[in-house]
Amino acid sequence: MSRIKIIIIVLAVIAAIVGAIFYVNYFQTDRAVFLNVGQGDSIFFRTGKGETILIDGGPDNTVQTQLGKFMPFWERDLDLIILTHPHSDHITGLVEILKRYTVKKIIMTGISHTAPQYLEFLKIIKEQEIPVEIAVAGEIEEVGDIKIEILYPLENLAGKVSDDLNNTSVVAQIDFLNQKFLMMGDAGFDVEKELIKKYGHNLQSDILKVGHHGSRFSTDVKFLEIVSPQTAVICVGENSFGHPSPRTLNHLERAKVIIKRTDLDGNVIVNREERIEKSNQLTNH
Ligand SMILES: [Zn+2]
Description:
Layout: H1 3-26, E1 31-34, E2 43-46, E3 52-55, H2 62-68, E4 77-78, E5 80-82, H3 88-100, E6 102-103, E7 106-108, H4 116-128, E8 132-134, E9 140-143, E10 146-152, E11 171-176, E12 179-183, H5 189-199, E13 207-209, H6 221-227, E14 231-234, H7 246-254, E15 258-261, H8 262-265, E16 268-271, H9 276-279, E17 283-284
The chain binds zinc ion.
């Protein structure tokens, strides 16, 4: 073998080793990601040790491609899935996730709804005997260093019928990366009022996952004042509903909140070492 060939092989081996080290290192970081899944919600939390939470799965299977960027290819399990409510822009991506990943636990309201994706979701849960916990205010769940407090619904909605599924959304406050994330699902004004009444200034959070894709029926001025987030993330894609509404954007701008949008910024990533007040912005990919 010529000397040049040997040098090329040695360099290739070194490049492969360095690449592998970078790959492994990249995933050893605590991270929260508001995934860009188009018009819908999907938010992923992962500790550097590999503990994971997925809140909603978006309107199609885009979530799988996006997840692949934030968890190593050999990880095929999720510690916790939270389904905020069974509308298709939140549940559809989760159906395939249940088929492809081992899911250790699911938190959801258990509200009654007959959309095909929801029925399939429930069927797979039953077949795979995945433990389900009904989301009720006051419950606390811990996945590694990620602490989740359920703030809403205030009562057990399992098996009940609602003519406004958005306002049955699971609302959770998540403590991770030394920051508080307020996850609103698609909750609107009525829920915001109930939350203010029950929790008052405990709603204060660093990052607000804006309710209902920034619709004009969410994010009231009073609510925003109490939550007083530094950053608001709007999970939104192309849509015919007028999301996000100029009204909501205006409220956020006037409150001097940094606005991040998955349609404009792509995946919105929050890292521990890139605290928002230091960098004044989140890293986007
Ligand atoms: Zn939605």
